[in-house]
Design goal:
2 domains; DNA binding; mainly alpha; transcription; 8 helices; 76% helix; DNA-binding; Rna Polymerase Sigma Factor, Chain: A; RNA polymerase sigma-70 factor (ECF subfamily); 176 residues
Length: 176
């Protein structure tokens, strides 16, 4: 077996491991931005196409998780600019509610989550971005800073403002 064939096989194994390890996370990142299963799945595929295109530079990537999230985030943001709000899946809130609760409680929680998501959508873009990455994707401040290309102190300030603004709006509506 030629050396390049061995390297190609190793690259395929690494890609398969990356897909298995990160595809669910990347889907959640894309879906939190796009609220469309089909669009989020397309983003995940596009991320791994980018990985293939840049496979030779993969050893230089310091934090693979953050690098992949950043690609998914940017691709999702680009896609979001192109899709109409009607294409966004209203069932997104339902995916955030526990399945083990009674139906009436599930409906009430879904409605409350939908109200929160509507208010998140109304936040200024920078605040909305950090809130989505923090709350839905559970990224830490250093990871968010890398994904969004900002300083950690800027991320903390944006997150604080986003949480305060969201809390005020929900209290005003009576949804807090």
């Amino acid at each position: 077996m030629a050396l390049s064939s061995i390297e190609d096989a190793r690259s395929d194994i690494d890609l398969a491991a990356l897909v298995q390890t990160y595809s669910a996370l990347l889907f959640r990142v894309a879906h939190s931005v796009l609220r469309s299963r089909a669009e989020a799945e397309d983003v995940v595929q596009d991320v791994f196409v980018r990985v293939l295109e840049h496979r030779l530079s993969l050893p230089a990537v310091r934090d693979m998780r953050v690098w992949l999230i950043r690609i998914a985030w940017n691709l999702a943001i680009d896609r979001r600019r192109r899709i109409r709000p009607q294409q966004m899946d209203e069932g997104f809130a339902e995916t955030l509610v526990a399945r083990s609760i009674p139906a009436d409680q599930s409906v009430a929680e879904t409605q409350q989550i939908q109200a929160v998501l509507r208010e998140i959508e109304r936040l200024p873009k920078k605040e909305r971005d950090v809130l989505l990455l923090s709350a839905l994707e559970e990224l830490e401040t250093p990871e968010m800073a890398k994904v969004l290309g900002r300083s950690e102190s800027a991320i903390r300030a944006l997150l604080f403002r986003a949480r305060m603004r969201l809390r005020e709006r929900l209290e005003k509506r009576g949804d807090a």
